[in-house]
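Listing S7. Sequence submitted for prediction.
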Amino acid sequence: MGKPRILVIDDEEIVRISCSRALDGEYEVDTASSGREGLELLDKAEYDLALIDLKMPGIDGMEVLRTIKAGHPEVSVIMMTGYNTVEHVVDSISLGAAHYLEKPFTPDLLAEMIREVLGR
């Protein structure tokens, strides 16, 4: 069995780079700079987990989450945001997100949450 595959979808380049660096070695990581690009990648490859930014131009994170859960229900999702509200957390979880990560976060917290969600 190969390394778990993770897709990071965030419009901020620094977040994509940070997540890739933090997860490199233990996981195969692909990144997308928009919701649309992320959904296109999901249709081309199999992923174990998607890290999705809540606020993005175009297709926002909630719409990406809905689309993933409709077409790829086996993919676990962790939502990321700098705009943490109870409403966002409740909505994300009710739509099928496994967890919610508030920005900024440490590489250790990210890795711990991913291990928890993937059951590793």
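Caption to Listing S7: primary sequence and predicted structure tokens for the chain studied. The mean pLDDT is 94. The beta strands are 5-9, 28-32, 49-53, 76-81, 99-102.
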